[in-house]
Write a structure and sequence with these properties.
The chain is of the alpha+beta class. Among the domains are: 44 residues, no CATH class; 136 residues, no CATH class. It is built from 8 helices and 6 strands. The chain is elongated and about 130 Å long.
Length: 312
């Protein structure tokens, strides 16, 4: 198999096939049984920068716990998972155990107490059996070795349900991110269309101030000097490169959303890159309308960054 190349952002170029976008939150549950046991698995998933899990397992189930990590990593790469596993025996063979030492101790103490109080009767067996710790009900422990195959099957089914839910939520998130990217592009285009007016307005204000200043002192305005000042302002406030890179980042965001797969870190990276460009644009723009558009873009980028934390 050939190696993938590296794209503009230093990230591997994935195969062209579209894959589902996955959220990191979800729920899955499944159950199954063999001829001796019934087993159920419930999984809840929340956001996390890596894959971590913890579980509530029945006693004596270390073998199942040891197999869990490998099964989880076949299906998921990120998320904080909580597993709850229940195992019930279908062959009910309850039994009891008697603690004879505890029973003798009870009887000795009770007879001693009865003698000191003047009672001649010894405690009955029925009474002693009813005292705490004398009788213990025993339940069959499940045979974990024979449960390994059943556990993997049930856990896999619960994971498939979880992944399906994460796919549905991921599709919703992807649609929302596309919408926010379109809002940002609209703001960038409005900034681009506003820039010529900003430069023209600055030129008018500058010429007016210079003329007023020189007229008050009886001097004429040199057109060349005025053009030089406007050129200096235009160069200092030029944001063409920043806006061009913003368009490129927006195109890349749409591309990876269409491509699908593991997007969380990539979307977060793009939002940071776009934030850097729009901050530079804002620092170069001394216009209230442009400042408002910059704030709007930054607000959308903050929402994109927040949503990237929900993506696998």
């Amino acid at each position: 198999m050939g190696k993938f190349g590296r794209g503009r952002y230093g990230l591997p170029e994935e195969c062209a096939l579209t894959r589902p976008v996955l959220s990191m939150t979800g729920f899955g549950r499944s159950e199954g049984s063999d001829d001796r046991h019934q087993l159920s698995v419930e999984i809840r998933s929340l956001n996390h920068r890596s894959l971590q899990w913890k579980g509530r397992f029945p006693p004596h189930s270390q073998e199942l716990e040891a197999a869990t990590e490998a099964i989880l990593r076949k299906h998921l790469t990120r998320g904080a998972l909580h597993l709850s596993i229940e195992i019930h025996s279908l062959e009910k063979r309850p039994s009891v155990a008697f603690d004879e030492e505890m029973a003798r101790l009870y009887r000795t103490r009770l007879e001693d107490l009865a003698g000191r109080l003047g009672y001649k009767e010894s405690p009955s067996l029925e009474y002693v059996l009813g005292l705490p710790g004398v009788v213990e009900r025993l339940e069959d422990e499940p045979e974990m070795g024979s449960l390994a195959g059943l556990y993997e099957s049930v856990l896999t089914a619960a994971l498939e349900m979880l992944v399906e839910g994460r796919q549905r939520e991921g599709a919703v998130l992807a649609t929302e991110l596309r919408g926010r990217a379109d809002v940002i592009r609209s703001c960038v285009e409005r900034i681009e269309s506003r820039l010529p007016e900003v430069k023209a307005e600055y030129q008018d204000r500058l010429e007016k101030r210079i003329r007023e200043f020189l007229d008050s002192r009886g001097h004429a305005v040199e057109e060349l000097d005025l053009l030089r000042e406007v050129a200096i302002y235009s160069d200092r406030s030029d944001v063409a490169e920043e806006l061009s890179r913003l368009h490129t980042h927006i195109d890349e965001l749409h591309r990876i959303l269409d491509q699908g797969g593991l997007l969380g870190r990539r979307v977060d990276f793009l939002s940071q890159e776009m934030l850097r460009e729009i901050n530079t644009t804002g620092s170069k723009s001394a216009d209230s309308e442009l400042a408002h558009l910059v704030v709007e873009v930054k607000a959308e980028l903050e929402r994109i960054k927040e949503q990237s934390q929900n993506l696998e």
